[in-house]
Amino acid sequence: MITFKNVSKAYKNHHALSDINFAVQPGSIVGLFGPNGAGKTTLINALLGMIKVEGDIEVLGLEPFSQRHKLMESVAYIADVATLPRWITAEKVVELFEGVYPKFNREKALRLIATTSVPLNKAVKHLSKGMIAQLHLSCILAIEVPLLVLDEPTLGLDILYRKQFYDMLITEFYDDDRCIIVTSHQIDELEQILNNVVILSQGKMVLHETMDNIAEKYVAVKVDDSNLEAARKLNPLTESKGLGRTTCIYHGHSHETLAPYGPLSIPSLSDIFVATV
Ligand SMILES: Nc1ncnc2c1ncn2[C@@H]1O[C@H](COP(=O)(O)OP(=O)(O)OP(=O)(O)O)[C@@H](O)[C@H]1O
């Protein structure tokens, strides 16, 4: 669905993206992570044809920059859920989405809104932030496009709404023919729903793996302090100190090689993030 070949973007002397290569298949839910300034928004802007870049990008068979108008018929892009015009009613928000997105399914949106506590006749400014998020989310999930791009969608929402957001994304939007790209700084919350991970650092792609490969290639070992010197000889990516034990993250060693140094586990995505960035 998406192919990036040798994609770079420079602003004056600063490389916001450097030689990015990756491909995304239908059915992918891709987590796009990176520290502040890593290039995530630039990558999304390139993907949506909002900026001109060096290299080749193909999204749904189109070249985004020159064919953006056509591409936008098949893409929904949402940054920051819970930012809707405050002066219109919830019902008018549904109309607004219908006007903006050709593939908006009004009946689905109304059905999803009916499962929330959002009253259709109330102005957005009279709804709580959580209700606004539910309203926005119900509308987003009713856009029937193959590609959904979410840039920090749950910013400012509490943990319950964030969880509900991701649950609904899977149950109400996802299927094998669609693709979701989502950026967030809350890495571990997304871990359960992703099947692909891209990590950027200083404009470079430092990791692009399926979640299955990550579970195979990365191992966390709780090493007793008495074993630490020996464990260090295997070049852990990171070490984090605990009481009497140090957790070392390794890449590319077999479980047999690492087992003598302590109990093994799959590292969390945030541990891998820290280790790679
Ligand atoms: N229009 C622009 N002009 C000049 N520099 C820019 C422009 N847009 C982005 N940059 C620079 O490119 C780099 C990548 O920025 P980008 O916004 O893509 O990062 P990000 O990963 O989305 O960061 P954050 O997590 O903070 O939103 C940054 O150093 C930024 O200052």
TrEMBL record:
Keywords linked to the UniProt accession: ATP-binding, Nucleotide-binding, Transport
Residues annotated as domain ABC transporter: 2-227
Nucleotide-binding in keyword set: yes
Superkingdom to which the source organism belongs: Bacteria
A GO molecular-function descriptor: ATP hydrolysis activity
Any coiled-coil regions, as ranges: none
The protein, known as: ABC transporter related
Originating organism: Saccharophagus degradans (strain 2-40 / ATCC 43961 / DSM 17024)
